[in-house]
Amino acid sequence: MRVISIQSQVVYGHVGNSAAVQPMQAMGLEVAAVPTTLLSNHPHYPTMRGRILETALVADLLLGVEERDLPMTAGAVVTGYMGSAANAAATAGFLRRWKARNPALLHICDPVIGDDDLGVFVADGLIEQFRDELTPMADIITPNQFEMGRLVGERPDTVEGVIEAARILNARGTGRTVVTGCVLTDTAAGEVETVAIEGGVAHRTSIPRIPIRPSGTGDLFTAYLTGWLMRGEGLAEAAARATAGVQTVLLRTQAAGAFEMRLTES
C-alpha cells in the first residue's frame, strides 16, 4: 500500500517526514514523501539552516506525484507541517483534484499549529488554511488538545467538550477526529490521553505521562495511526495502537537520555 506524505523534512532529527517515513515503511507501506521544508534540524537548537520551500517547488513536486499517477494507487495522503499558507493552499488544491478523481483516497491531516509549551508556532495564515481548507476535506484529523482549541475557538477540557468540538468540525466537513496529548478534567493524575471520536462516541486511551518532550511525537503518532489504518484496523484500535507505539519510542528515548526520539532500538 502506498501513502503520500506531505510535510516538513530535516537533515538531522525526527520531525515531519523525518519522523513519519521510517515507521510507515517499517509497517510495510511504500511512502512518497513530499517536503514542505528542508531544514538542518528542528527549531529547538541554537541554530537552524535551510528554509521553508518555495511554493513553486512544492507545487512542482506535487505535479510530479500526479504525473506518476501516485494518487490513483495510494491508500492515503498524510498532511502535516506546511511551512507557509501558500504551501497549504497548493496542497489543498492537490487534494481537491485527487479526492474528486479517487474518492477512496484517505486524507489524514495533522493540523500542525502549536502546542501548550510554545503556543502557536506557525506562519501567519496557516491556522486559517488548516481551519478553512485542509481539515474540512480531511477524512481523519489528529490535532493535539491545543490545536483542537484553535480549530474550534475554545479549548476542550472535558470529554464532552472534545465530542462537541469534533461535532463542530464534522459540520464543516471533517470526517473523524483523534485528539492527542489530552489532559481532561477527569484524566487520572500523571496520565495523558488520546481521544478518538467516531459517531459521537469517545474512545479513550490513557498512558502514564513520560517526563520528556522530544519534538515530532505528533508526527510519529499520525504515522503509526496511518499504518494501522492501512492494515485494516478501525479508528479506535488504530489510535490505541499508535499511542502504544509512541509510548514505546518515548520510553526508549528516556532510557537513552536522548534529545531526539529514538525510533529504533540501536
UniProtKB/TrEMBL annotation:
Species this protein is from: Brevundimonas vancanneytii
Gene Ontology CC entries for this record: cytosol
GO molecular function: ATP binding; pyridoxal kinase activity
Gene: pdxK
Keyword Ribosomal protein appears in the UniProt entry: no
Record domain Pyridoxamine kinase/Phosphomethylpyrimidine kinase: where: 73-254
Keywords noted in UniProt: ATP-binding, Kinase, Nucleotide-binding, Transferase
Lineage top rank: taxon: Bacteria
GO biological process: pyridoxal 5'-phosphate salvage
Root EC class: transferase
Protein name per the record: pyridoxal kinase
Its EC number(s): 2.7.1.35
Membrane-spanning ranges: none
CDD domains the record matches: pyridoxal_pyridoxamine_kinase
